[in-house]
Amino acid sequence: MKLNIILSLFTVLSVPTAGFQSNFRIHLKEWSLCSSRKSVESLQVDSHQSDVQTFVVGKKDDDWPLDIVLTRQYPEKSRRFFRKIIQAGRVKVDEKEVKRLSKIRKGQLVSAQFKPDEKPSMEPEDLGLEVLFEDEHLIAVAKPPGMIVHPVESCETGTVLHGVLHLLTTPREKVTPKETAAQPEGNQENAQEEDTKVERKPEKNAKKGGPDPWDPAKPLKLTARLCTGLAQGVVHRLDSDTSGVVLVAKNAPAARGMAKQFQQRSVKKKYMAVVVGDLGPGVHHLTLPLLRTSSGKMAVFQEAQPEWGEEMAGGDMLTGDFTDVGEADAKGARGATTIVRRLATDGQLSVVGAEILTGRMHQLRVHLAQEANCPVLGDPVYGDTDWNRRAKRSENLQVSRTLLHAHSLEFTHPITGKHVSLSTPVPLDMKRIVQRIHSYDE
């Protein structure tokens, strides 16, 4: 009887035990699937996170709209693209989702969810650009009038960068640069006269007896990384109509070094322009501060102008939306200094040389038009409308653009420390008018 009781008890206990084991197996299987699912989700998140691009906002991007800053950081993408992903909630600032085009501040952490381009964002184009200077760190070219520096939504081909990309990805002969040793600040005035052609020496880290690490005969491979790097290497810009020297950095150290020099205003930028009127003899210092109007144009700020917020004669509303670096007054205007000298005049038109000491938007054009009362001939924004119309129809002038030329650029090489002085002559359309004015002035 005891044996039967024990067997019965064992049978009773064995049923839930079997059920427990069965349930345990089921739960174990479910846990395993759940764990597996979590692993897959984790992998998806990790893969997803790999498409998240992050950066810290720097000084130059302080108080700029988010979409513009993103375009600066990732120039292979358009502003339209970044507006879409902002509105879709795929951009965060300080780990908070942002769905509007707000301005961001220095030091904030921006993360944007998108996959970087694997294919080159630009195709090389043979635009016949003249190379003024080149080494493994920098390349300078002569920009013709009518060509923009980098691609924008309204013009995605035929830019200076497309031409530079062609130069770097095509076998070429080496250009012998004009360089001088770095000189004390007081001797910079004579640097250009002392320039002599020198052959580049191989880098110190080059193998003894080996080839120079930079050789234009061995072109670079066209990659998305190269396109992005070049776009980020544009250290200064010229307006579409303006011709002259354009410098592009080939690598990040050179880009940072040149950006610092432009920010510190140690780069000498000299221009030549044909203006309406006679500036008068001697050297003229144009120093009125500049501000941006509601239409996007620039204007000089002086006491004679309307009070802040009142309409100007042209219907523009003065605003403080000017975010360049430098000193600002209470009205939001930024300090600007331009040195101008008359080179020749025929009484109606003049040829002037100018040096820009600060880097404000349209600085030279605005200073000449609104402070010196001598607008650049052909300037459709700040110029004299009547003169522009007459000059365009005149058989002797035939002016179809702003007659402004970035004649020369002087700087210290950000890597070698040598003084570099670059210059390029005025284009033929402007040269003809310059010579005509000089002939009257002789």
From TrEMBL:
<dbReference type="InterPro" id="IPR036986">
    <property type="entry name" value="S4_RNA-bd_sf"/>
</dbReference>
<feature type="region of interest" description="Disordered">
    <location>
        <begin position="171"/>
        <end position="219"/>
    </location>
</feature>
<dbReference type="GO" id="GO:0000455">
    <property type="term" value="P:enzyme-directed rRNA pseudouridine synthesis"/>
</dbReference>
<comment type="similarity">
    <text>Belongs to the pseudouridine synthase RluA family.</text>
</comment>
<keyword id="KW-0694">RNA-binding</keyword>
<dbReference type="InterPro" id="IPR020103">
    <property type="entry name" value="PsdUridine_synth_cat_dom_sf"/>
</dbReference>
<dbReference type="InterPro" id="IPR006145">
    <property type="entry name" value="PsdUridine_synth_RsuA/RluA"/>
</dbReference>
<dbReference type="GO" id="GO:0003723">
    <property type="term" value="F:RNA binding"/>
</dbReference>
<feature type="signal peptide">
    <location>
        <begin position="1"/>
        <end position="19"/>
    </location>
</feature>
<dbReference type="InterPro" id="IPR006224">
    <property type="entry name" value="PsdUridine_synth_RluA-like_CS"/>
</dbReference>
<dbReference type="Pfam" id="PF01479">
    <property type="entry name" value="S4"/>
</dbReference>
<dbReference type="InterPro" id="IPR050188">
    <property type="entry name" value="RluA_PseudoU_synthase"/>
</dbReference>
<feature type="domain" description="RNA-binding S4">
    <location>
        <begin position="64"/>
        <end position="128"/>
    </location>
</feature>
<feature type="compositionally biased region" description="Basic and acidic residues">
    <location>
        <begin position="194"/>
        <end position="210"/>
    </location>
</feature>
<dbReference type="GO" id="GO:0009982">
    <property type="term" value="F:pseudouridine synthase activity"/>
</dbReference>
<dbReference type="Pfam" id="PF00849">
    <property type="entry name" value="PseudoU_synth_2"/>
</dbReference>
<keyword id="KW-0413">Isomerase</keyword>
<dbReference type="InterPro" id="IPR002942">
    <property type="entry name" value="S4_RNA-bd"/>
</dbReference>
<keyword id="KW-0732">Signal</keyword>
<protein>
    <recommendedName>
        <fullName>RNA-binding S4 domain-containing protein</fullName>
    </recommendedName>
</protein>
